[in-house]
Amino acid sequence: MALFDLPLADLETYRPEIDEPDDFDAFWTATLDEARAVGGTPTLERVDTGLTQVVVDDVTFPGFGGHPVKAWLARPANADGPLPAVVEFLGYGGGRGLPHERIGLAAAGYAHFVMDTRGQGSGWGAGGGTPDPVGSGPASPGVMTRGILDPHDHYYRRVFTDGVRAVDAVRAIDGIDASSVSVVGASQGGGISVAVAGLVPDLRAAMPDVPFLTHYRHAVQITDGFPYAEITQYLRVHRSPEVAAQVWRTLSYLDGVSFARRARAAALYSVALMDGTCPPSTVYAAFNAWGATTGEAPAKEIDVYPYNGHEGGEAYRFPRHLAWLGKYAA
Predict the structure, then answer these.
(1) Which one of the listed residues 140, 180, 182, 187 is annotated catalytic?
(2) What domains appear along the chain, each with residue ranges and CATH number?
(3) Of these residues, 5, 275, 281, 321, which one is catalytic?
(4) What is the DSSP string of 93-153?
(5) Average pLDDT score over residue span 32-37
(6) Which of 42, 184, 256, 299 is deepest in the core (most CB within 10 A)?
(7) Which residues bind substrate (predicted)?
């Protein structure tokens, strides 16, 4: 795809007004209080991977509603002392895969917690193992419109809560430095990392790459790429203005721009200027808003890939992540 969004100079100053509900904070405080009130602790079972320098545990922890959520926890073997942790969230349709697939951060000295995404894990990669036991009303294929008529019912209310509970879980595990937890993810994983950074005030670093789940209304207006097009498809079928109003109200509680405004962690973003899946202006809307309501000025940088689509930086991101973690989370 050729360049289609705002010029880079305009992206760097793009700060749109969004429809943030007055009870946004109350909604999320009540959601997280409810999830934590269920209680529960993570359980770990060591996996025989055949690796000698990295150990991996199969983790189950309580997420939204106390529902069991799976994760891998990879750590350097024979680690001495509490380890800083990095919680990773995954891209749309993927699952946590196999235990030996993500060991780079563990090899670099971090505890790497890879959260499965409920109800996904069959679109790409090596699969997932976490169901979503909550039902949905009529929806278009995919997860964007599951529970779209009420923010309490929406799929991403559950997933974002799982993400926060993943941070809670990793902090409760022996051998983890609970004061040094960071989040990372690309695409959907980037969007989840933005949400979690807005909901957990004491993370060290957040590293969202080409993040999804931000500035929804604008995204639907400028791209016909999926998954944002799931929203368009739903509205094309359910044509009444009343339904549209309900849809946009629900999504206003889930917008990455609102979460970014509340984030305090040091943020390293990436954006691809030819990205038709997560348009650059939606990424910059969140990046430019980072920390805006906190009264602070968290460190933040954004790496720009001028000639790339949604693949963004891919493997080029890893050394950048290590450098960022070394500066803010080690």
Answers:
(1) 187
(2) 8-328 (3.40.50.1820)
(3) 275
(4) T-----TTS--HHHHTT-EEEEE--TT--SSSTT----------SS--SSSTTTTTT-TTT
(5) 98
(6) 256
(7) 92
